[in-house]
Amino acid sequence: QVQLVESGGGLVQPGGSLRLSCVVSGIPLAAVPLGWYRQVPGKEREWVAKITNTGSTDYDHSVTGRFNISRDDAKDTVYLQMNNRKFEETAMYYCRVIARGSTTWGQGTQVIVSS
Q: Which residue has the higher pLDDT, 5 or 28?
């Protein structure tokens, strides 16, 4: 059974930085691509960034140049480094894997951008 556990959320000031982690179990991280998403209450979940199993990355235009997604296959962990945070980026952040024909989401980690 594939499981994802996010961590690293918390309170950050506008302009500040935060790093999220997503630990994958049940399947070798090296075998799958992984994406980060976020959701504000009352709105649809939106894609933020992704990294393939070969290390290629892609970002939503709203975070390009400020966010960096990376992976450590030895630790089965994907990171999302978020810099220069904005008020409107307060949200629950989730990681997602599609593997063995199924989609798996983590439980999410809350990020609050506030002064």
A: 5
